[in-house]
Amino acid sequence: MSKKILVLPGDGIGPEITAEAVKVLEVCRDQFGLDISWDEGLVGGAGFDATGEPLPPETLDKAKAADAILLGAVGGPKWDKLPDISKRPERGLLGLRKELKLFGNLRPAILYPQLADASSLKPEVVSGLDIMIVRELTGGIYFGQPRGIRELENGEREGFNTYVYSESEIRRIGKVAFEMARKRNKKVCSVDKANVLEVTMLWKEVMEEVAKDYPDVELSHMYVDNAAMQLVRAPKQFDVIVTGNMFGDILSDEAAMLTGSIGMLPSASLDENAKGMYEPCHGSAPDIAGLGVANPLATILSVAMLLRYSFGEGEVATKIEQAVSKVLDQGLRTADILSADTRKVGTQEMGAAVVEALKAL
Ligand code: NAD
Ligand code: IPM
Ligand code: MN
């Protein structure tokens, strides 16, 4: 039976980059014979503008019915001052993650050798880099209760959030990380702030318990401040990093830059059964939206992850990755990854080049 994908372009550069990713899907269907189809939906600011909700019920229904979701990005200055936080575009994205129970977020930071010069670090520090960040995505301080802004007796206001993880939440993301490490270099580094926060003391303890079932995998622990430093000092020491929602958000943007640009980092957000939502790690880039210069490769590489993790089409996924590599070999670069002796192209030209390279494989 045909597998259904829900495409949610979202805001800012979202529509520009997902349009290129859809062209890649077309090649997968027409040339590689994948039995896939897709439909579009509204989310984020686009959802709010059209319906008053960042996650319109119709979109949620379509997302539940789909076999996988491909999302561009949400948010932008237009909606930043909405007084009701539940209407903000980002809530659309968070709502999808929570409603679909997409707790396992995979963010692979892989350096394409052709981009060694685009990284802000020295080529020898990043060459051969291949890290998998496993970020918990439906818990932690992002979702903990109570939360809000309240008035104190002295008349000033106080903002508060709750950083909370249950043992079962920690265990299930731990298993994702250890399973992943088993297929890689068999090292898990769990990142916490257990020297200060009880919630991450428990995190550390549960990771130790999970590790007992994986004697072939080496577990280490690192405080998040040190991890942030080690990522730019010697990033190749890491194989799999497992961490909570907020630390994972921050560290994955940092890791993205090691690969040359945030425009290169795809992601998968998976539930227990590998149903997933796929999106670039970057945001809606309001500063370049509408200019046709955004890098579509993170979104195209997210299509590869979708095919690999949700549809079991690893071979086609690898072809997409090879096509991206070929285009980089040809010296084509969007502005964010431009370096000496390369040619600057826009979003559409980059997408078209990947499509051509893919067709030739
Ligand atoms: P951002 O990732 O949108 O942009 C940060 C910087 O990276 C900008 O200079 C931008 O131009 C650049 N950049 C990002 N993606 C790029 C690409 N594909 N090609 C070239 N350059 C790229 O982060 P921000 O500016 O902090 O956030 C902007 C908005 O996006 C906010 O509303 C934020 O909430 C939202 N956001 C959404 C997501 C998501 O939908 N998953 C993720 C992060 C931020
Ligand atoms: C991401 C984004 C989101 C997050 C925002 C937009 C809610 O930064 O996907 O990395 O913090 O998870
Ligand atoms: Mn982020």
UniProtKB/TrEMBL annotation:
GO cellular component terms listed in the entry, alphabetical order: cytosol
InterPro entries: IsoCit/isopropylmalate_DH_CS, IsoPropMal-DH-like_dom, Isopropylmalate_DH
Names of the cofactor(s): Mn(2+); Mg(2+)
A Pfam short name: Iso_dh
Superkingdom of the source species: Bacteria
Compartments reported by the entry: Cytoplasm
Keywords: Amino-acid biosynthesis, Branched-chain amino acid biosynthesis, Cytoplasm, Leucine biosynthesis, Magnesium, Manganese, Metal-binding, NAD, Oxidoreductase
GO biological process, one term: L-leucine biosynthetic process
Site for Important for catalysis, residues: Y142, K193
Cross-referenced Gene3D superfamilies: Isopropylmalate Dehydrogenase (3.40.718.10)
Pathway named in the protein's UniProt entry: Amino-acid biosynthesis; L-leucine biosynthesis; L-leucine from 3-methyl-2-oxobutanoate: step 3/4
Family named by the database record: Belongs to the isocitrate and isopropylmalate dehydrogenases family. LeuB type 1 subfamily.
Known role: Catalyzes the oxidation of 3-carboxy-2-hydroxy-4-methylpentanoate (3-isopropylmalate) to 3-carboxy-4-methyl-2-oxopentanoate. The product decarboxylates to 4-methyl-2 oxopentanoate.
HAMAP family reported in the protein's UniProt record: LeuB_type1
Identification of the protein by name: 3-isopropylmalate dehydrogenase
Naturally occurring in which organism (per UniProt): Marinospirillum celere
This protein's encoding gene: leuB
